[in-house]
Amino acid sequence: MQLAERHACNWETRRHEIRLLWERDAAPVKGGRSFTALDRSRGVLDNGGMTTETLTCPYCNAAIGVSTGLSAGQRIVCPRCGDTFPLRPADAFTGQPMSPATAETAITNKPAVTASTAPPPELSLHSRRSTGLVAALVVGVMLLMAGGGLVFMLMTQQQRRAYDTSRPPRRPGKQRGVPETEPPLPVVASISPDKLPALGYLPSEVNFLFAVRIPELLASPTGVRIMREPIKIGERAYRLEELPAWLGLRLEDIDHLVFAARVDDSLPPPFYLVFRTAQPYDEEQMRQRLKGTRIGGPGKKTLYKFHPKRPDIQLYAWLADEHTVVLALFADQLERLANRPVEDLQQLPEEVRTVLKERREPVAPVWIVGHSRDWSKTRAALFLKWLKKEDQAKLAPLKTFGVWFVPDHSLAVKGVFACKDEAGARGLEEYFRSLRGPDPNFKTALDGPWLTLQFPASPDFVSRLLKRN
Question: Closest Cα partner for 359 from 466, 445, 420, 462?
Fold first, then answer.
């Protein structure tokens, strides 16, 4: 319906334009006949002695036969469309013969020009400008949309690639629906427990050793948990990761540390804490980190007195070499140490050396070794008295032990225990099995007075062993 109305409106507009142009050309023209785009061919017919002439309706192109003798300006009614149009001077019939030029133009043997073959009407200057403006607007909008789309795609390329399921997200930060991945742990070269350089600075009197290789321990998630869990000694809690701060260093600055003590009836037991740094340190910078005071002594060692984190604790430090710092509770303990490290653990008790060199695990970032002829006569008896008498009897044959902690995806505990005789080793095996319960992963082996065991555990096992919370 709208299409029909549009065509009707266009037709009425067109008819109005034709009428105006035709009436304009109907006025007399001086100097002869005028020709316009609306001129039509005419032919002269003889109808029973009456001369007629054929004109073309300017509205519907119908051929109209009219009699001669009509003057210019008279209106002619089209029998086809019903519209009237004035007779132009060029079509007026004067009865005079037409000139050859006129005859050639007006009367020819060529077919009349119809609507299908007529040349298109000339458009006005306003119409041409309007059409050009619309075309320019359309092209401009298309170019603007294309340019905007290209800019948007380039700006959002990284975000769109982040949601591609065939590759990991590239946008930084956490994304919904995308699981976070932990950064890969560093690959660290392992060192055998008996090859730790800090052991060379220990005195011969120690019989209890606890060592931690920091890079190897941090190379596993389980080891990181062990470093962060608190160790409670009396009413105070300590963390392994806090120990390097005593020297004003970070955890990553330490390669390994060794805690050694002489466990006997002394109170407090003499102990040593040896730090081995990963990189060489400057002596003056280390002194500034310690915030210590240099003290003089009878020996040749340069010692410093300082307070590690707590004002109520006072320790003494010896900067043994560019990698080693030795701490002790008293200055005379440091004075008795050898100026150079002892090779091959020759200064340690034979039983301790045997465990470290012959019964050790090849890789163990955390380990404990101890020896005593009779633990009940040492300060360890304070812990044994909380056990039942039958349990104390089973532990009585124990003389030497070594426990190795190997963290990976879980914690593997491996231990060796030397008793006074084979019967003592068998009784100790029964005691450990009673503590562990029925566990197919708990494995033991007897070799004369030696008992070897192995079982998987969680990091809280170390907490219970070291009296942690």
Answer: 445
Location of structure tokens 């020759």 = 346
Structure tokens at 231: 């160790």
Same domain? 198 vs 280: yes
Residue 110, Cα to own-chain centre: how many angstroms?
Answer: 84
d(CA 291, CA 223): 31
List the one residue out of 414, 417, 413 whose CA is nearest residue 401.
417
- In terms of residue numbers, what domain contains 163? 148-181
459 three-class SS: coil
Q: Which pTM was predicted?
A: 0.60
Reported as a single tens digit per residue, the pLDDT across 117-172 is: 445 444 454 455 556 666 666 766 677 677 666 666 666 666 655 555 445 544 45
The answer to whether residues 266 and 414 belong to one domain is: yes
Cα–Cα distance for residue pair 119/115, rounded to 1 Å:
8
Write out the DSSP string of 180-197: --PPPPPP-----GGG-G
| Structure tokens, 334 | 């440091």
In the chain, which residues have pLDDT < 50?
Answer: 1-4, 7, 26-49, 94-118, 120-123, 125-126, 165-166, 169-171, 468-469
Ramachandran assignment for 177, one of left (phi > 0), alpha (psi -120 to 50 degrees), beta (any other): left
Residues 98 and 170 in one domain: no
- 380 touches 374 (CB < 8 A): no
Residue 332: inside a domain: yes
Cis peptide before 268 (omega within 30 of 0): yes
What residue has token string 């298109």?
120
Distance CA 16, CA 39 (A): 17
